[in-house]
C-alpha cells in the first residue's frame, strides 16, 4: 500500500533547511572575493571558488560560502566531499558564468559537480552555462562535444537547492545521482524548446527526493526519473516547453534497479510533447516500475497527456524484434484534465511479454480540439473509477 501523504522525511528536511537559513549569522563565512574572485564576468575565478570550498570543507564549524552580486567566470569544478564541516551553504547573490567557448566545458562531464558531500545547500543565484553555441553546433551536424551537465550531486546526502536559476545548460541542468534526502524548491530552469538533451532535473539511484514549486522550460524532459529511484515526491511543478515528466528510458542495462513509490502531484503542462510518461526500451531487463501515483495534473495542448511506451527503439538499433522486460504495475492516474493536441490522449503500449497490470484511471477528463479524444491499449490490464474521458480501453 502506497503512502499517499507527503512523506514525513520531507517535513523534516524543510524544517532543517529553514533552521539552516535562519542560523546563517552563526556560521563561519567565506566570501569568494577574499580568495581572489572577480565579479566582472571576464576574469577566471575558478581557483578562487575552489580555495573557498577547501577552507569551508576543512573547517570544523558550520560554514557559508558567500558569492556577492556580479558575474563570475568559472570553468569546470568538482567540489569533493570528506569535509569536516557538518554544513556548507553556498549563498549566491550573483551569476556564475560559463566560458564563452563551448568547447571548454563541452569536453567535461559536469560544469559544477558535488561528489560525496553531506549537508550542502545552494541558496539563490543564477547559473548561465551559455549552451546555445553548442546547440547550434549539434544542429549543424558538426563534430561537437557532448556537453556538460550544469549542476550535479553524486553519492551525497542531505542536499538542499533553493531559489536557483539554471539558464541554457549545455546538457542536463541538474542531476541527482546516488543521493539521499534531497530537497529542490523554487528552482527555475530555462532553455530553448529545441535545445537537445537539456533535461531539467534528472534523478537516478536516489531515494527521498522532493521537487517542489519549480518552473521548468527546456528542450527535453522537464523531470526525468531513472533506474533506482525510490520515494520521489514532485509537487506544484510547471512544465513547458519540453518533453514532460518521464520515468525512463529504462532497460538500458539487463540488470537494472527498479523505480518505486513515486508521487507526481499538482503539475501543469503547457504545450509539451508528453505529460506523464513511462518509457522503456524493447529489450530484456530485470527492472520494474511500481507504486506510481499521478495526481491532479492540468494538460494544456499536450501531444501525449498520458502514455506508457514499452516499445521504445529509436532508429531500430539494438532492439529490433525484442520485447521489454520491464515489469510495470500499480500505476494510478487520478484527476488528470485538460486538452490533448492529438486525438489519442491516453496510450498504453505495453510489453507483450510483460503486460502492464494494476493500471487505474480515476476522474480523467481530456479532450481534443473541443471534441472527444481517444484511448489506445495494448497488453494492459486495469480498471476505471468515476468519470473517465476519453472512454477507457482498459
Automatic annotation (TrEMBL):
It is found in: Secreted, Cell wall. Its main location: secreted. The keyword Signal applies. It comes from the Eukaryota. Gene3D superfamilies: Single-stranded right-handed beta-helix, Pectin lyase-like (2.160.20.10). InterPro entries: Glyco_hydro_28 (IPR000743), Pectin_lyas_fold (IPR012334), Pectin_lyase_fold/virulence (IPR011050). Residues 1-26 form the signal peptide. Belongs to the glycosyl hydrolase 28 family. PANTHER family: PTHR31375. This is Pectate lyase superfamily protein domain-containing protein.
